[in-house]
Design goal:
The protein is mostly beta strands. Helix content is 0%, strand content 49%. The chain contains no helices and eleven strands. The strands form two sheets. Strands 2, 4, 5, 6, 9, 10 and 11 form a seven-stranded mixed β-sheet that branches. Strands 1-3-8-7 form a four-stranded antiparallel β-sheet, with no helix packed on it. A hairpin with a 6-residue loop joins strand 5 and strand 6.
Length: 124
């Protein structure tokens, strides 16, 4: 059974940093595009960042560009999201996702697998 397991969420003050990790299990994801989405209470799921299979192409939402960095280590079968200069509006459940077909854009409907999410809370 394929699973995506996120970790690294928590409570941080505004201006602080967190690094999220996503470790797929059940199969290797070295040839799949991957991404991060988030969802705050009462809001729709929102694209955060995407990365192609090799890691040399990335795409960010305007709201996080320059503060967040998506990366992957295919030797460890792990996806990362480094989040710096966090703001209270970054508070959400963050989800890891993967797509077999190489898509790493903002349309959540096009991704094949999803994790259960990890909570990130930024206090002011």
């Amino acid at each position: 059974q394929v699973q995506l397991v996120e970790s690294g969420g928590g409570l941080v003050q505004a201006g602080g940093s967190l690094r999220l990790s996503c470790a797929p299990s059940g199969r290797a994801f070295g040839r799949d595009a991957m991404g991060w989405f988030r969802q705050a209470p009462g809001k729709e799921r929102e694209f955060v960042a995407g990365i192609n299979w090799s890691g040399d192409n990335t795409y960010y939402a305007a709201s996080v560009e320059g503060r967040f960095t998506i990366s992957r280590d295919n030797t460890k079968n792990t996806l990362y999201l480094q989040m710096n200069s966090l703001k209270p509006e970054d508070t959400a459940v963050y989800y890891c996702t993967a797509d077999f077909g190489g898509y790493y854009g903002s349309n959540w409907n096009l991704y094949d697998y999803w994790g259960q999410g990890t909570q990130v809370t930024v206090s002011s």
